[in-house]
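Protocol step 4 of 5: obtain the predicted structure for the target chain.
Materials: sequence only (see below). No template structures provided, no constraints applied. The aim of this step is simply to have a reference model before the mutagenesis design in step 5. Sequence pasted as it appears in the construct record:
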Amino acid sequence: MIVELGHFALVLALGTALVQSVLPLIGARVGDVRLMEAGSTTSITGFVLLALAFGALTAAYVGSDFSVLNVVENSHSAKPMLYKVTGVWGNHEGSMLLWVLILALFGSLVASFGRSLPPSLKATVLSVQGWVLSAFLLFILLTSNPFTRVVPAPFEGQDLNPILQDIGLAIHPPLLYLGYVGFSISFSFAVAALIEGRIDAAWARWVRPWTLLAWLFLTAGIAMGSYWAYYELGWGGWWFWDPVENASFMPWLSGTALLHSAAVMEKRSALKIWTVLLAILTFSLSLLGTFLVRSGVLTSVHAFAVDPERGVFILAILCIFIGGSLALFAWRAADLEVGGLFAPISREGALVFNNLFLTTATATVLVGTLYPLLLEVLTGEKISVGAPFFDLTFGPLMVPLLFAVPFGPLLAWKRGDLLGAAQRLYFAVGAALGAGVLTLAMTEGLRVLAAFGIALAAWVMAGALVDLVERSGVRKVGWRVAGGRLRGLPRSAFGTALAHFGVGVTLMGVVCVSAFDTEMVATMARGQIVEAGGVQIRYDGQEPRQGPNYRDDVGHFTLLRQGAAFAQMDSAKRFYPARQMPTTEAGIHTFVFSQLYISLGDAGANGGETVVRIWWKPMVTLIWFGAVAMALGGLVSLSDRRLRVGAPARRRSVAVRV
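Step 4 output (structure tokens):
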């Protein structure tokens, strides 16, 4: 009965979304307040209905209701409760339901917290959200119904894909979808502005918090996905330039450009047309990522291998929304005012420079991702575009961008002083030179590129700190006054500095692990000792272990330093009988920011030996710590009252004396 209620709620949500797509837009065009208010009512109602549908599917998973086909194909009665819940979105149908639930959530947030928006703009934004929601609800109901019954119901399910039975699945997809889908608000604001033919600095103030919210969730989602692949897949890598990884990275790059462009538009009323275009392109890339994951055109550990006919449906959605929005942009962009002028050397100019390289990098990743697919469609030839291509194209684009990052906050609006900004960055220059020289000294001058990368990371981190120091004026007014000035700074200043510092931290981790990691493969017998990363590793043998829905062969290792044991590590080969699939559970031991990573292979030629792969990964955790710092920077900025979602403008109260 609960399943039928969920299905019925899904159908009602479609009807509500269709009403939301039409009535508010009509109301905005004819000036009818009641029709415009229907957008808020229907968006909140749609969210409640979709939450009910999602709850019904979750109840089916928790109760192991194997009369539901989706539960049969992706669950098992012996599966731990956590993975029963996360299994709800560990498949195509359930994850699409989560997708539309988050889409409805953002629409309801605009309805609830957008009281300061002009009524016509708010109604048009909610109407555009309704278009997107209606399209994807149709897709779910026609091709991907999660509530389909199976008769007769089997006694047991087929279990969830073993590599998805991990805590990372509880975190990674929801965060990623909050980022993907969050950019739909920026898209809706852009389309609404084009429909109304009016865009100004106030528009940028309204759209910027939603963009920042989506960006910080996408940042956290990509970082969590990277770490999940690193520790779960057993291959020791943190990024593979997999097409599905690229599908999430492209909207992050363009979303970063959109954030900076919206800042220029809000402060200087410039880059209006460019900001609207970026808002459209960022969500378009999110839709493209949805297509790549669900169309069946990709074979990837990250992708849902589904019927290609579903891909045709999503491709049609892609063409309608991307093509339609770009056509609307081409038609109305000429009617929009260009905005304020500024000198090339200015903060606006620095942000334009930033946007130029970010969008070029996005285009590079897009070409590298889609070219093999297009070539196969046109010629039937299969090629692989991997890390070498992206390292040679994406990497060089990032160098000038990262070099310019510390200059931007130090330049004045409209017209800046490049030489003056450079003089204030002497501390950052010293930090970069010191880090580079120290690296060359430690590597005996053999790792020039590594030294350059570490120097660049130090430059970005120190530059972020210089921005705060300069704002405090500590060199002129002393520490006490400077401390007061720092406390008086807007939170967005601290958020920007923290995000830029996080970029440098991530770069430091990437350079160190790429240049200095070591790998060894050894066939080890019980009691044998090898050395990696200055640590001795003793193999203590294997033992079987039974899990709730799997069997483990666990390899035990002891870490020694100068012959004395100081830690234990376990690595395992795991087998899931229901799926008849093995997985590798890597053993990881962290030394401050570095990690020792051990993965078990197959048994050696002799019965008592095992093939062991060992990596020493210096500073690898900085990659994810930097991403966390970036996301926290976004959160701190979002807490600034000027950027807080839905924060009403303060009004001075006037005391009336009688």
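Step 4 remarks: Residues 220 and 628 are 7 Å apart (CA to CA). The chain is about 65% helix and 10% strand.
Proceed to step 5.
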